[in-house]
Amino acid sequence: MERYMAIIYPFKPKLSAVSTKVIIGIIWLVAFGLAFPQCFYAEIMTDNGMTKCIVAWPDDVGRKHQLTYHIIVIALIYLLPLIVMFVAYSIIGITLWSSTVPGDHTNRVYHHHQVTAKKKFVRTMVIVVITFAVCWLPYHLYFILGSFREDIYQQKYIQQVYLAVFLLAMSSTMYNPIIYCCLNQRFRSGFRLAFQWCPCIKATEGDKLKLIYPSTSQLIRN
């Protein structure tokens, strides 16, 4: 949303420090609220010599509670972010694609450079959305299936399966910098400048110039 506001409404003032702290506080409260039921009903049990941590929902309507809880979690932390990302990036992509940058429009090299920059931006945003969707889907499917078939939690390698889907979901936060670094030249320059203390990374004067005087096409990509 911050990127959406910066590109679609570039002249509007950014969020103040107080507003940013309030938003961060709300995010933490929502996250705490979503995680609390699992913490509250969590139990440690021993099954065939293996120690497991399970969420024991109330016996009377436990399956109903469990299914309702996971549907709410999926809606808030998967479907809603996915919809917001898709809509925001779609509007950004359409806005940038239909916009023109001042310059010599008769110059074929300029026109080709501009089109290439827009294609890179759209490709980057599509990859970001797909990565988020793919990383989190197995995690949510795991719990939805568990709501209908509780016996899957008793399977021999279910702990390993859970850890695999959990780590895949958590890893979604590390892919965006990698995607930006692969597809964005200005991001790579910033990366080299930030880690130039490392012996294997060398920053050049060109990297500094790209950050101080970004070209028109680089502005479009960012």
What this model shows, in words?
With 222 residues, the protein is mainly alpha-helical. The protein has a domain of 124 residues: Rhodopsin 7-helix transmembrane proteins (Rhopdopsin 7-helix transmembrane proteins), CATH 1.20.1070.10. It is 72% helix and 5% strand. It is built from 9 helices and 2 strands; from the N terminus they run ααββααααααα. Strands 1-2 form a two-stranded antiparallel ribbon. Helix 3 runs antiparallel to helix 4 and helix 6 packs across helix 7. The chain is elongated, with a radius of gyration of 23 Å. 6% of the residues are buried. The C terminus is likely disordered.
CATH superfamily of the domain at 60-183: Rhodopsin 7-helix transmembrane proteins
Shape: elongated
Q: How far from one another are the termini?
A: 14 Å
What structural class do you assign from the helix and strand content?
Answer: mainly alpha
Please name the CATH architecture of the domain at 60-183. Up-down Bundle
Number of alpha- plus pi-helical segments: 9
As residue ranges, the low-confidence spans are 215-222
Question: In which order are the strands of the major sheet placed?
Answer: 1-2
Helical content class: over 70%
Largest sheet, in brief, is:
2 strands, antiparallel
Order of helices and strands: HHEEHHHHHHH
CATH class of the domain at 60-183: Mainly Alpha
Radius of gyration: 23 Å
Global mean pLDDT: 80
CATH-assigned fold name of the domain at 60-183:
Rhopdopsin 7-helix transmembrane proteins
Strands, total number: 2
